[in-house]
Design brief:
The protein is α+β, with helices and mostly antiparallel strands and 393 residues long. The protein is built from 12 helices and 17 strands. It has a 5-stranded antiparallel β-sheet with strand order 8-7-9-15-10. Strands 1-2-6-3 form a 4-stranded antiparallel β-sheet, with helices on one face. The longest helix is centred in the C-terminal third of the chain and has 24 residues.
Length: 393
């Protein structure tokens, strides 16, 4: 099974990652990873860091002659914000010394990890919590999971996403966008993400994009922030990934964890999970038919998962992101140093990063599907795995 660890701070020298369990023989180029790192910066409403942070991955081990070796893959992603001309971060994040002259951060922001993190780890300075809990960590997560994504792609499994709501602007229900998405999925889920990437908000509707941009401008003017909803879709997924026999092997449970593990994500649904709760069963469950010797469903309200297993239809997962808690307009807090009520301080941030979150979600879903695939068809080399898969098909 593929597992990974990330390390590093938002304004430290670099983020690093180690990915273990990738079979030998998977074709992999740094450009395959860089492409998705660049997509992570997409979206109107991003903060100033997007203007100078040019993510390029460094691969240190586990790949030889553009193919994985089956050994751990080590990655490094430098933080441009660490440069000396970027607010003195080498001094603020110095590995050695006692922090003389470095100002402590003592105003926890509501909605962040700030207060609970300092309580949990016994800090008298919020900076360590800010640095590690930051969504900057997702850059390395995208890099690590993009390796799993390349593995899937070489087996015909593609992943894409699009934004369906940003704040008050968006579709009212899944039926409003389903036909457009299904037309794109005929060419695979990557056609979906390419179409979404053409929009500044990764929305598939030009009118919604224009209204969403105005909504972001108004929120920024008011010193506020916006959340939203996005949809991740995977095509080419065979039936039988995951299992109903134990709770921790259920594919929908694993997909839910993948989405909620991303910073600021507060809810998730598989298929039409939320809408289905208000409908009768006759309008929820997908009728089964047999065509060309194969079973399929006439609809996909279940989002490609039944009984904790993939059913051969496209996997559909939606994530719900809360508004970013770093606000230009201050909220009330308490100074940890004095115990006095104070307004929050502003750390550079986005007005919204829902479009970026959708690309991160693509990556986390890729890891879940790759591991579910390996559980069923696993082997030590890509050749061995592909032979097993093709034999069953």
């Amino acid at each position: 099974m593929i597992r990974y660890l990330t390390a590093g701070e938002s304004h430290g020298e670099a983020l690093v990652g180690v990915v273990e369990g990738v079979p030998a023989g998977v074709s992999l180029h740094p450009a395959d990873i860089d492409k998705h790192l660049a997509r992570r910066w997409l979206g109107y409403g991003r903060g100033g860091r997007s203007k100078f942070e040019k993510d390029k991955i460094h691969v240190y081990s586990g790949v030889r002659f553009s193919r994985t070796m089956g050994s751990p893959i080590a990655l490094r992603l430098d933080n441009a914000a660490y440069q000396k001309d970027r607010s003195g971060w080498p001094e603020v994040m110095a590995v050695e010394g006692a922090g003389e002259g470095v100002e402590k951060v003592t105003l926890p922001r509501p909605g962040h990890a700030d207060l609970v993190g300092t309580q949990k780890y016994g800090f008298d300075d919020i900076r360590p919590v800010i640095e590690r809990s930051s969504a900057r960590e997702t850059a390395m997560r995208v890099a690590c999971c993009s390796i799993a994504r390349q593995f899937l792609k070489q087996l015909g499994i593609e992943i894409g996403s699009h934004v369906v709501r940003l704040g008050e602007v968006g579709y009212a229900r899944a039926a409003d966008w389903r036909e457009r998405v299904e037309a794109l999925l005929v060419d695979g889920a990557e056609a979906l993400y390419r179409a979404a990437d053409e929009s500044e908000l990764r929305m598939l509707d030009d009118d919604l994009t224009a209204r969403g941009i105005e909504h972001i401008k108004a929120a920024k003017e008011a010193g506020d922030s916006l959340g939203g909803v996005y949809e991740v879709v995977a095509t080419g997924v065979p039936p039988g990934l995951g299992s109903y026999v134990q709770w921790d092997r259920r594919l929908d449970g694993l997909l839910g964890q993948a989405i909620l593990s991303i910073q600021a994500q507060k809810a998730v649904e598989v298929g039409d999970g939320v809408e289905a709760a208000a409908r009768p069963g006759s309008l929820v469950h997908d009728p089964i038919v047999r065509e060309d010797g194969r079973y399929r469903r006439q609809s996909n309200n279940a989002g490609g998962v039944e009984g904790g297993m993939s059913n051969g239809m496209p996997i559909v997962v939606r994530g719900y992101m809360k508004p970013i808690p770093t606000l230009i307009k201050p909220l009330g807090t308490v100074d940890l140093a004095t115990g006095e009520a104070q307004p929050t301080r502003y750390e550079r941030s986005d007005v919204t990063s829902v479009p970026a979150a959708s690309t991160v979600a693509e990556a986390t879903v890729a890891l879940v599907l790759a591991n579910a695939f390996l559980e069923k068809y696993g082997g030590d080399s890509f050749k061995e795995i592909r032979e097993r898969y093709e034999a069953e098909r």
